[in-house]
């Protein structure tokens, strides 16, 4: 995989064009996803290696992207620790037994790697199907983001209960975060052992935090996880919503790549990072709703800005929305793949 565009760019080597993959590429914007989803529940899909492989391969076969991402979810660590997880259409993820008291935290298990073995099995099936064509990215949720789902019991707009725990019960919050971080490091190491070619840590809701709180309750645990990875020779990508603000701090955790949201000029932020640290990003996913000339123009503008830069992976600033037209995503990938520096 060392010679793949994605791995080369992740390690800041020269490439003839930027590699492309998109967060949430294995998902609901594809009619073919629904053909599978209509027959199985989301968790069944995650836990059945052949099905997880089928979904992982959809964007590989239909979009011809430069990296595949494991089909799973960031919340499987919370489930393995004892969360009663379900996914309901139009509601999203739910933990029926939210974690809000000291007793709830004490009850969470950390010795849970056996419960996540199905992910290692899926990775092996996916790698057989990929057959060396492109790299496979594994992933996990960052402790703060996973904590927010455990505490709120599901999605949240304002993270009220989570922030209340950080502010009123910081010692309790740290115990919870430390438990999640321990499981997350072991979980990513399981994925590396099973054969993924890169890992990405998703801290999707970090932007809700004030700078000091981000530092104390999020960054610190990501740093700990990255330090505990048995990295072998694979790149580590750190993503958060809010990276346009937090990237210089994220860099201190020493990932190989930082995935940047769309609020910032990508070159400006790259220039503020240590030499040799790659960036991934950062098209506003809403551009993919627009007309094709707009999509092409925005991609070309980003690429012109990044011209001559080593260490640039094209991605969106966050995941593809489920109602973005498939044709537009396919067109964007074509525009990117035709481009030459
Ligand atoms: O009902 C369905 O069809 C399930 C929808 C779905 C899908 C396709 C969920 C529920 N998760 C996923 C897959 C998924 N989730 C992947 C697969 C690989 C890919 O294509 O990228 C990944 C990487 C995730 C990670 C994930 N899950 C994140 C981090 C990434 C991000 O977009 O910020 C988050 C925050 C989640 C939680 C989650 N799981 C599912 C939903 C609908 C949500 C978000 C709900 C919310 O807004 O809180």
TrEMBL record:
PROSITE patterns: UROD_1, UROD_2. It is found in: Cytoplasm. Its EC number is 4.1.1.37. Its main location: cytoplasm. GO terms for biological process: protoporphyrinogen IX biosynthetic process. Keywords: Cytoplasm, Decarboxylase, Lyase, Porphyrin biosynthesis. It is an enzyme of class 4 (lyase). It catalyses: uroporphyrinogen III + 4 H(+) = coproporphyrinogen III + 4 CO2. GO terms for cellular component: cytosol. It comes from the Bacteria. Pathway: Porphyrin-containing compound metabolism; protoporphyrin-IX biosynthesis; coproporphyrinogen-III from 5-aminolevulinate: step 4/4. Residues 19-28, 137-153 form the Uroporphyrinogen decarboxylase (URO-D) domain. One of its GO terms (molecular function) is uroporphyrinogen decarboxylase activity. Substrate binds at residues 24-28, 73, 149, 204, 318. The record marks 73 as: Transition state stabilizer. Catalyzes the decarboxylation of four acetate groups of uroporphyrinogen-III to yield coproporphyrinogen-III. Homodimer. Belongs to the uroporphyrinogen decarboxylase family. This is Uroporphyrinogen decarboxylase. It comes from Mucilaginibacter polytrichastri.
């Amino acid at each position: 995989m060392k010679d793949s565009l994605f791995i080369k760019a992740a390690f800041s080597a020269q490439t003839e064009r930027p590699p492309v993959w998109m967060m949430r590429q294995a998902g609901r914007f594809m009619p073919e996803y629904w053909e599978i989803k209509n027959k199985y529940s989301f968790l069944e899909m995650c836990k059945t290696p052949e099905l997880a492989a089928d979904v992982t391969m959809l964007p590989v076969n239909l979009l011809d992207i430069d990296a595949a991402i494991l089909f799973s979810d960031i919340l499987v660590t919370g489930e393995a620790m004892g969360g009663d997880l379900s996914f309901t259409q139009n509601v999203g993820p739910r933990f029926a037994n939210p974690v809000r008291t000291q007793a709830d935290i004490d009850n969470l298990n950390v010795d849970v790697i056996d419960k996540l073995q199905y992910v290692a099995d899926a990775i092996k099936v996916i790698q057989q199907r990929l057959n060396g064509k492109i790299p496979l990215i594994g992933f996990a949720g960052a402790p703060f983001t996973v904590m927010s789902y455990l505490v709120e019991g599901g999605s949240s707009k304002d993270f009220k209960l989570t922030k209340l725990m950080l502010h009123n019960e910081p010692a309790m919050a740290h115990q919870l975060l430390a438990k999640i971080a321990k499981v997350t490091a072991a979980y990513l190491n399981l994925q590396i052992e099973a054969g993924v070619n890169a890992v990405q840590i998703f801290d999707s809701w970090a932007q809700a935090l004030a700078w000091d709180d981000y530092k104390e309750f999020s960054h610190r645990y990501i740093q700990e996880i990255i330090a505990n990875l048995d990295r072998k020779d694979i790149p580590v990508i750190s993503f958060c919503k809010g990276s346009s603000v937090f990237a210089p701090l994220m860099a201190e955790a020493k990932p190989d790549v930082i995935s940047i949201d769309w609020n910032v000029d990508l070159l400006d932020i790259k220039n503020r990072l240590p030499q040799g640290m790659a960036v991934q990003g950062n098209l506003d996913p809403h551009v993919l709703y627009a007309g094709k000339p707009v999509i092409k123009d925005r991609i070309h503008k980003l690429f012109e800005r990044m011209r001559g830069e080593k260490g640039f992976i094209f991605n969106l600033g966050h995941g593809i929305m489920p109602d973005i037209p498939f044709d537009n995503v396919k067109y964007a990938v074509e525009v990117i793949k035709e481009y030459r520096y």
